[in-house]
Amino acid sequence: SRRGAQTTSDGKGLFAKKSIKKGENIFTERPLVSAQFLWNTLYKYKACEYCLRALETAEQNARRLSGNPGLSLPHPELCKVRPELHQACPQCQVMYCCSECRQAAAEKYHRVLCLGPTEDNPDHPINKLKDAWRSIHYPPETSSIMLMAKMVAAVKQAKDKAHWQKLFSHFCSRTANEEEEIAHKLLGEQFKGQLALLHSLFTSALFDEHLSRWFVPEGFRSLFALVGTNGQGIGTSSLSQWVHACDALELPVQQREQLDSFIDQLYKDIDKETGDFLNCEGSGLFILQSTCNHSCIPNAEASFPDNNFLLHLSALCDISPGEEICISYLDCCQRDRSRHSRHKILRENYLFSCSCPKCVSQMEEQDVTSEEEEEAEAEGETEGDEMEDEMTDV
């Protein structure tokens, strides 16, 4: 659903049709397809195979992440996870948060991707594809070959195949040279020769004559680039949802201090045991969200407050009628870096240079990074130079 927003006819931007207040939900959108990251799955981050809802209770989640199996959370009634509703696929035992998600997955794509009793067979073509991807794409993960697999499976299962292919065609198409650059960036310089291996395994696992253009090398690379530039990260966490519910409680001062202290200590314990990887993580393809252009001073941001794949786009400030709605393709830390560093990230990952008001106002800055940024980038500098040289040659 969307309120007060419209796309341009060429799909290159999203604009406000009416006044939108700061904090207002601009639209809510479900993805065409979504997939949990493969390393995230392997590391026992349990999520619904369809909607990515976290399946662990907040307490189970906190125990695993903190390494404390005897931990008890106060206010357990604030956890919204309902294990009694969880259902497994009868054939392959993949888990869903409810019967509705299991049925939706089966109707949409899972009949093609279900491995049945061969779920743990390393020689199954789909498992070979997953293993190859994991050996190339290490955490922190930004994409998944299974997003591409679900695209193929959705078309294969669809009665109206042309309709689904048209839906996927909404996402940006690029020149062959641009797609090659994106594919190589997504794989990493040391693995760019593995694109042919992934293509071969992908074809063995999923080939369909209706989609033959996606299985020729150029088409596969195009699919790869589509997922690389349009995949929106999704994060879900039953613990995070429980913490937000705790924050909203009205408590006497002493109880509030005790609860806040407990939560602060819990996060310290988790940081020591697990580090930064707290969420079930994946990515999805969202038609409306993908029409939002980038700005280094965005007026909207995406979030997943329902603990599933439903994307909420909210206004970060008041937005006037006719004003473009922009999100940031950079995270908060990246947005605080110099114009030169921001452009380097955007150019390498999305193949464009930003001309937002912030970048225009900083045009007179020297094209050098700060000392802190140089230290952070020093490790990858040589590799980055080699990549830029190859981009120029292309």
UniProtKB/TrEMBL annotation:
Residues 365-394 are annotated as: Disordered. Its EC number is 2.1.1.359, 2.1.1.372. Keywords: Cytoplasm, Metal-binding, Methyltransferase, S-adenosyl-L-methionine, Transferase, Zinc, Zinc-finger. It holds the Pfam family SET. It catalyses: L-lysyl-[protein] + 3 S-adenosyl-L-methionine = N(6),N(6),N(6)-trimethyl-L-lysyl-[protein] + 3 S-adenosyl-L-homocysteine + 3 H(+); L-lysyl(36)-[histone H3] + 3 S-adenosyl-L-methionine = N(6),N(6),N(6)-trimethyl-L-lysyl(36)-[histone H3] + 3 S-adenosyl-L-homocysteine + 3 H(+); L-lysyl(20)-[histone H4] + 3 S-adenosyl-L-methionine = N(6),N(6),N(6)-trimethyl-L-lysyl(20)-[histone H4] + 3 S-adenosyl-L-homocysteine + 3 H(+). Residues 1-330 form the SET domain. It is found in: Cytoplasm. This is Protein-lysine N-trimethyltransferase SMYD5. It comes from Neogobius melanostomus.
